[in-house]
Amino acid sequence: METSELSFPARGSVVSRSSEISDNHVKSNGKNQPSSKLSKQIEAHNKLQNGSSTDVRGESVLVSQPNQKDESHPTETNVTHTKLMGKPILDDSSESGTGSSMVYGESSDFPDICSDSFSLSDIHNELMDEANRSKKFCVARISKSKSINVDFRLSRGIAQVNDGKYAYAISIFDKILQEEPDYPEALIGRGTAYAFQRELHAAIADFTKAIQSNPSAGEAWKRRGQARAALGESAKAIADLTKAMEFEPNSADILHERGIVNYKFKDYKAAVEDLSACVKVDVDNKSAYTYLGLALSSLGEYRKAEEAHMKAIQIDKSFLEAWTHLTQFYQDVANGERALQCIREILKIDGRFAKAYHLHGLLLHGTGEHRNAIKELSIGLSIDSSSIESLYLRASCYHAIGEFKEAVKDYDAALDLELDSMEKFALQCLAFYQKEIALYTASKFNTEFSWFDLDGDIDPLFKEYWCKRLHPKNVCEKVYRQPPLRDSLRKGKLKKQEFSLTKQKAALLQAADSIGKKIQYHCPGFLPNRRQYRMAGLAAIEIAQKVVKVWRSLQTEWKISTKGASKHGKKVRRKEKLNPPSFNRGGAGCSTSSFLESSTSSSAEDKPYGRPSLPWHAIYSLAVKWRQISEPCDPIVWVNKLSEEFNSGFGSHTPLILGQAKVVRYFPNFPRTFNVTKAVIKENKYVHNKKDHLINLYENGKLQEVMNAESCSDLHRVVGEDFWLATRCNSMTVEGKRLEGTRISLEKTDQMGYDFAIKTPCTPSRWDDFELEMTSAWEALCDAYCGENYGTTDFDLLENAREAILRMTYYWYNFMPLSRGTAVIGFVVLLGLFLAANMEFTGKIPEGVQVDWEAILEPDPHSFISSVKSWLYPSLKTNTSWKGYPDVASTLETTGLVVAALSTYSD
Predict the structure, then answer these.
(1) What is the reported pLDDT for 340?
(2) Cα separation, 780 vs 413, whole angstroms
(3) Rounded distance, CA 552 to CA 284, Å?
(4) Which has more confidence, 576 or 332?
């Protein structure tokens, strides 16, 4: 190798996990300081005063605040200083692969805890970690004007950096720079040593001075770019690396590093461009290939992404990073079988690779195998006990199966860890909330399941902070804390309950499993989850059992009323022609063809019986409660129980595009949602800006430009700023009234992309509107089923009941009254109502169909019914056998028995 310039090639493995050393502090000017990113996050949430704050337990702690100069220093974890040079500034062994290249979105119905994302620490660790180089850090341009002694000392300083003796190297460079303050090579050498010691600001200062001394020092531009990337200064980092390219055109090393920086800072298109160019020049760059796979995944190019990861593995079959990324890729697209195959390959390579056990635990958790997940996570934690991701996930699994002592122990361990990034700090905050929920559940364990009431018992402020994953300082100070576990043990509330699988219980669970599996979406990102199947089946059966009792009572009233009317010679109207209360324009049962087509009104006195004893929200609350207990790590609560946040419009948020990333679960709905957006704009001729002011679009041909738009950028350019609009949702209760449906929003994110999402704030006025629709729809269903056709198994006679159920489902999905989980709960209730009406859904939801999206993108119940009946109705079979199932409420009487039923499998 020539010695004419400093060489830091960017080849080789980005990560090596065989040895991991935890280093939770960053050095800044020789002083240890906590992560600035974490400090800034604590500062934002805690409103620090005089350096005093609280930790996530709510206990007073002293937070060291970085000085202004070092405000953005990241903290590095898992640091390993190798003794090979020809490496970039930082050489760390890191937790690669924790960053999924895909995004799920925040309103997913199945758990997505611990779906990791890259932090600045990851950037520091992975971007800069090019260990085990084939090249050496060499002396650059030994100047003819310098003395041999100076050049000798320069060579010796570089040798010390090569050997990892950074402090000694710095002392050598200091002496050189005392004599020659502007010596570029010495500045670059000292800057590199500083960077290895995590003194990034000092490193940048040296690189900057080297550039000032010699603007053609390409290595200085490159090094400064790397250091700036580690500090999160993405734009400056890219600019420096781009400048470095001027001195090394088509450099595979710089293309590789710039590609990784682009990926880390979510400019996926630029990352693909750089990394694709890199592998053309350097066809064996396995790291470039696997990062190319990550970037392609983010852009929704799944086939190409898989090929890129496989190419990296083809180059090096023992390349753990590529195997890890490929595992995460398969989990993201819900290919659990292939993900498991990758995990097995990883463990063949390194049986003590802790991340593999975490990924296996995550996969098992996602498929409802919580007990098996605990086993895998425990192995991983025996290797790396400081993994908050594994600790939190194992705690959640213990929590879900009712092992509260172990759950609390793991939550406490997660709370005690010193962390290095905001993402991990968010998990620590969640551990606080989940511990409180675990303690609450423990206190209800031996009581009737009907007494388990998160929405009624837990303080609204606690729930708001839990849903938003905020620092719990204010919660600790203002709300009631759950009693410690020892209190529940002492009072006998946590007595272990034996779950004997009797023939009766076995039959119930078997039926529940069969019914519940119908909730499965056959779309990318939705793993099959047997625990959620059982939850859905038991909830649907219990709903059917409760609803049948209501209908039986109404039918009794109807018979009494009919007899009385007959005695007095009054003509009784056919039951299918009865309408809901007087405020309902349409109502079910108004005609023998369809309740949706009726416009006939009837007064309350026309009804031969009163209103149902069970309100609509009590039916949905049954499903909500089952969902809460089945996966307690998901904050699923009624939005109207969130006090202040309810008044300000807290609601759901489901992204389709985040920046440049296509959200794996929801992006398939993008083309249709985008077309609906344009159609609504054309109809309304306006949208709303962020301040809810109208933006008129009826002038200067803008409406035509809107209709011609083919992308988010096109649409945003026409409107000229961020905006939102509401889809159509026509009322069936008040003639001519148009409700505010789902809000679709488009926001520009810096220069790299757009956030395109549905956001539905539940304000009190909106709640009142949909409360009326849901009440009317529920009473319409009762009208449609009760009366002369009560209990029928004639499929044709049940048409009005079917349409009434789908009407109720339509308004539920447009209502979105939960913090999350609206989709699965809506379908669980649908299954239960069909059962109650003697109809069982025996098919499956078609591939690519998401029922909630079918509802929110249609303007009225009739359109929604038309969109789903082609696959739904042929799979509905009349069936009354479910009435022979044991009563769910009495068979699984206590919370403990419910948890046991969800956690026990015969196989």
Answers:
(1) 97
(2) 52
(3) 72
(4) 332
User: Tell me, what's the pLDDT at 481?
Assistant: 79
d(CA 810, CA 805): 9
Q: Output 580 or 675, whichever has higher pLDDT.
A: 675
**Model confidence pLDDT, tens digit, residues 321-330:** 999 999 999 9
Q: Per DSSP, what are the bridge partners of residue 49?
A: 52
Label residue 310 exposed, middle or buried (CB < 10 Å: 0-12, 13-18, 19+): middle
CA 45-47-48 angle, 5° bins: 115
**Contact status, residue 323 vs residue 313, Cβ threshold 8 Å:** yes
Residue 620: other Cβ atoms inside 10 A: 25
What confidence tier does 423 reach under pLDDT thresholds 50, 70, 90?
confident
Q: What tens digit of pLDDT does each residue of 181-226 get?
A: 999 999 999 999 999 999 999 999 999 999 999 999 999 999 999 9
**What per-residue string of b and e applies to 417-428 under the rule 16 or more CB within 10 Å gives b?**
bbbbbbbbbbbb
pLDDT at position 813: 96
Coil, strand, or helix at residue 789? coil
DSSP code string of 604-660: GGG-SS---SS-HHHHHHHHHHHHHHH-TTS---BGGGSHHHHHTT-EEEEEEEETT
Map residue 62 onto helix, strand or coil.
strand
Structure tokens at 83: 């003794």
The pLDDT score that the predictor gives to residue 498 is 65
Instruction: Check if the beta carbon of residue 110 is closer than 8 Å to that of residue 366.
Output: yes
H helices of 417-484, in order, are: 422-443, 454-457, 460-468, 473-478
Query: What value does the mean pLDDT take over residues 258-271?
Result: 94
**Dist. CA 456–CA 130, nearest whole Å:** 54
Q: Which residue has the higher pLDDT, 738 or 100?
A: 738
- Give the whole-angstrom CA distance, residue 782 versus residue 883: 19
CA distance 127 to 15: 9
The C-alpha atoms of residue 854 and residue 861 are separated, in whole angstroms, by 11
DSSP string, 673-741: HHHHHHHHHHHHSEEE-TTS-EEE-SSTTHHHHHHH--SHHHHHHHH-S-EEEEEEEE-SSSTT-EEEE
Letter for the amino acid at 687? V
User: Is the Cα dihedral 762, 764, 769, 773 positive or negative?
Assistant: positive
How far apart are alpha carbons 794 and 464 in whole angstroms? 47
**Cα dihedral across residues 852, 856, 857, 858: positive or negative:** positive
Taking the C-alpha atoms of residue 437 and residue 493, their distance in angstroms, rounded to an integer, is: 15
Look up the pTM and report it.
0.81
DSSP 157-172: HHHHHHTT-HHHHHHH
Q: Check residue 502 and give its pLDDT.
A: 86
Taking only the tens place, the pLDDT of each residue in 375-414 is 999 999 999 999 999 999 999 999 999 999 999 999 999 9
Within 47-147, where are the H helices?
A: 120-122
- Asked if residue 76 has pLDDT above 50, the reply is no
DSSP 197: T
Number of Cα atoms under 13 Å in the Cβ half of residue 240: 23
Which residues lie closer than 8 Å to 452 by C-beta, 6 or more apart?
A: 441, 444, 625, 628, 629, 895, 898
What's the CA gap between 563 and 569, in Å, rounded?
Answer: 10
Q: Which of 15, 126, 115, 119 is nearest to 333 (CA)?
A: 115
Q: What is the DSSP string of 354-391?
A: HHHHHHHHHHHHHTT-HHHHHHHHHHHHHH-TT-HHHH
**CA-CA distance, 203 to 191, in Å (whole number)?**
4
448-481 burial, b at 16+ Cβ within 10 Å, e below that, comes to: ebeebebbeebbbbbbbbbbeebbbbbbbeebee
Considering only CA atoms, which of 591, 595, 561 is closest in space to residue 577? 591
Of 282-291, 320-329, 756-765, 895-904, the range with the lowest mean pLDDT is 756-765
